[in-house]
């Protein structure tokens, strides 16, 4: 049978009739894009958060010429965007994009009419550019990049469709529901020469970056353990089946997920699909703790590797619509000997605590330290200076 990446590729093949077996960019265009990107990287215009898959932050914006659209560049060098999934989280991203000069949102897509209309109004576009089916948005040739703000179970498939069309992606967290799906997307981004950024924006905060720089440069001694407290999951009762409302394309909303009876809480974000394993396999660990684990791995320099061993326990709802973990305690072991303990906030304070042989640093956007002198440290030229996101 097919392995998960093959199944994922096949699903997108079936969805995307425009798939041509190529990246959508000619070899010359592809090389031109890479040359320009490398040039800008050396010039300091592009940081690793935009060029790599371990990205951070509210999206960095670059001219559409850099995205390989030279023939279609307007005199103003406007970057044109589409939005797939225009719910509350995505609209927050849209608002951030609108604050950056030279950015224009041309289209939105969402199977929920209220989200679609709210996104359309925020973007200031006509009804003919607000789609139910995101594939119509992907088919447009006048869009440079796409914000993917769907529920988790659509992240990979929507991003794959966008990348294969020759566009670039800013995708909300988590990247995927499984390692295999995430690997398939990462491989596709590399294969098609796309720019991809992942929405783990807490790394854009100065306190987060500062804490991680102190750890990575040995200012708390040798790192021994990282302790994380993140919010617990949610439980709910049984929810009876209801008729599918006419403002919802329920089949499209479900997409690759199993067909289940409609109930309003199934399509609501909080509390809703975040805590249903059909849509978010790890529940609130993927929905929230992903930020904290991301920071922990950034601080120890393991953002491109990850743990070598993971074990843990959890408490799950006995019944009800929500079926993902409520309370949890996990232990990650890394090749460098560091132990990471991740629990819900009933056991540890919300945030990330790095413990070394000579002190500790705690961060949750801000920074706390074991010794006030750590706050006065100025990094030297030979220290590791982590990427600073300016927008």
From TrEMBL:
GO molecular function: nucleotide binding
Pfam families assigned: GFO_IDH_MocA, GFO_IDH_MocA_C2
SUPFAM superfamilies named among the record's database cross-references: Glyceraldehyde-3-phosphate dehydrogenase-like, C-terminal domain, NAD(P)-binding Rossmann-fold domains
Gfo/Idh/MocA-like oxidoreductase bacterial type C-terminal domain span: 241-364
Organism field: marine sediment metagenome
Residue ranges annotated for the Gfo/Idh/MocA-like oxidoreductase N-terminal domain, each copy included: 81-199
Upper taxonomic lineage: unclassified sequences, metagenomes, ecological metagenomes
Name used for this protein in its record: Gfo/Idh/MocA-like oxidoreductase N-terminal domain-containing protein
Family annotation (InterPro entries): Gfo/Idh/MocA-like_OxRdtase_N, Gfo/Idh/MocA_oxidrdct_glycsds, Gfo/Idh/MocA_OxRdtase_bact_C, NAD(P)-bd_dom_sf
Region called Disordered, residue ranges: 1-31
């Amino acid at each position: 049978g097919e392995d998960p990446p093959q199944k994922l590729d096949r699903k997108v093949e079936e969805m995307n009739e425009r798939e041509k077996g190529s990246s959508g960019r000619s070899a010359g265009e592809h090389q031109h894009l890479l040359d320009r990107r490398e040039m800008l990287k050396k010039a300091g215009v592009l940081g690793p958060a935009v060029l790599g898959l371990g990205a951070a932050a509210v999206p960095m914006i670059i001219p559409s010429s850099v995205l390989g659209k030279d023939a279609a560049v307007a005199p103003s060098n406007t970057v044109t965007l589409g939005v797939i999934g225009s719910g509350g989280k995505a609209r927050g991203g849209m608002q951030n994009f609108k604050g950056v000069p030279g950015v224009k949102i041309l289209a939105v897509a969402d199977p929920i009419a209220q989200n679609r209309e709210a996104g359309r109004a925020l973007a200031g576009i006509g009804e003919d550019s607000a789609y139910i089916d995101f594939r119509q948005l992907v088919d447009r040739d006048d869009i440079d990049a796409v914000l993917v703000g769907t529920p988790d179970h659509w992240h990979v498939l929507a991003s794959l469709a966008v990348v294969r069309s020759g566009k670039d992606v800013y995708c909300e967290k988590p990247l995927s529901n499984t390692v295999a799906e995430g690997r398939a997307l990462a491989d596709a981004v590399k294969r098609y020469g796309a720019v991809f950024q992942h929405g783990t924006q807490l790394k854009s905060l100065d306190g987060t970056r500062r804490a991680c720089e102190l750890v990575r440069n040995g200012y708390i001694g040798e790192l021994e353990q990282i302790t994380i407290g993140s919010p617990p999951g949610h439980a709910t009762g049984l929810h009876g089946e209801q008729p599918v409302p006419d403002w919802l394309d329920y089949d499209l909303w479900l997409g690759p997920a199993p067909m289940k009876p409609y109930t309003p809480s199934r399509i609501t974000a909080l509390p809703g699909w975040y805590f249903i394993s059909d849509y978010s396999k790890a529940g609130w660990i993927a929905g929230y703790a992903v930020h904290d684990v991301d920071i922990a791995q950034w601080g120890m320099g393991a953002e491109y590797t990850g743990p070598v061993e993971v074990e843990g326990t959890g408490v799950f709802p006995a019944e009800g619509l929500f079926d993902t973990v409520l309370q949890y305690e996990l232990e990650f072991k890394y090749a460098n000997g560091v132990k990471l303990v991740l629990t819900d906030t009933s056991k540890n304070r919300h945030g990330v605590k790095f413990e070394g042989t000579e002190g500790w640093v705690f961060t949750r956007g801000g920074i706390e330290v074991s010794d006030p002198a750590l706050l006065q440290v100025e990094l030297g030229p030979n220290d590791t200076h982590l990427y600073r996101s300016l927008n």
